[in-house]
Every structure is written in structure tokens, then in C-alpha cells.
Amino acid sequence: MSNILKSTKLDIALVKPYFKTICFTLLLPIVFAAINRSLLTGVSFAMCFIAMTTGYTFSITEKNSMDRLFGILPVRKSELVIGRYVFVLAMGLLSLIISLIAQPLVLKVLGETVGVFDIVTAAIAGVFLFALYTVFQIPGYYKYGSIKGRVFM
């Protein structure tokens, strides 16, 4: 279990320079929700955007030839894969929480009514879309690499 967490921390360290870009991708759906005046649309857009950023770790590792580093680490390949999934799920969960807090606030400021049913519906749709995107993306990245695997994005 500790190797999985260490693998997740390694992925966080890899993506750390792109943190501002990822935060910016969370601001765009807030604007999109304000324009469309729909929480469901905004959360769906946010989960789609954050699912696209999951490829950062794959492109960084391929760009820097980190496969050799992973080969000498005392970690099994399965632990690296599970750690990558944990990282992606954490990113998805964090973006869902941020979206479900910020977007209803913006919509309330604009005079829209956002009920509990709207929040629950948007959360379920967001989780479903994120799972749908990542279920195809991550295995595609592992099988074909980050450049060819973008087809699954």
C-alpha cells in the first residue's frame, strides 16, 4: 500500500509544474456554467476538461524517458498503475468538489436557483462522464503511449 501512495506522490510531483494550467481548466467551466446558466452543463464540462489533463503524467514520463527510472524503482508495475489510477481519481474528485462548490455560488449570484436535486444530478453526471473518459483514456495511454494514446481522448 505504501508503494501505491509513493507512486501517487510521484505523479503529483510530475504534474506540479502544470498546477496553474490545471486550475485554469477549472475556471473555464465556471464561466461556461455562468453563460449557459446550468450547473449540469458546467460540471460536465469541468469533468471533461479535467479528464483531458490526466494525460499530463503520461506525456511527461514519455517526454523525459522516465520508463528507465520506473524500471529501477523497487515497485511492481501493478503498483505504479494503481498509483496512477489513485492520482487520476483524486484529481477527478477534487475537481468535482471545486465545481460543485464554485458553480452553484456563481449561479446564485446570477439569480439562478440551484436546488439539492440539481447538485446531486450534476454530481452523478460528472462522476459518470469522468469515469467514462478515464476508462478509455488510461488503458489507451498505457498501451499506445501518450502521443498515440491521445486518440482515446
Written overview of the protein:
With 153 residues, the protein is mainly alpha-helical. It has seven helices and no strands. The radius of gyration is 17 Å and the shape is elongated.
The biggest beta sheet, please?
none
Proportion of residues in helical segments = over 70%
Sketch the topology as an H/E string, one letter per element.
HHHHHHH
Question: Kindly, what is the distance between the CA atoms of the first and last residues, rounded to a whole number of angstroms?
Answer: 29 Å
Number of domains: 1
Strand percentage, roughly? under 5%
**Which class do the helix and strand fractions yield?**
mainly alpha
Task: Tell me the number of helical segments per DSSP (H or I, 4 or more residues long).
Answer: 7
Count all strands and give the number. Answer: 0
Shape: elongated
Average pLDDT, to the nearest integer? 85
Radius of gyration: 17 Å
Low-confidence stretches: none
Concise summary:
The chain is mainly alpha-helical and 153 residues long. The chain contains seven helices and no strands. It has helices spanning 2-15, 19-36, 39-52, 56-63, 67-72, 77-109, 116-148.
Name the descriptors:
153 residues, mainly alpha, elongated
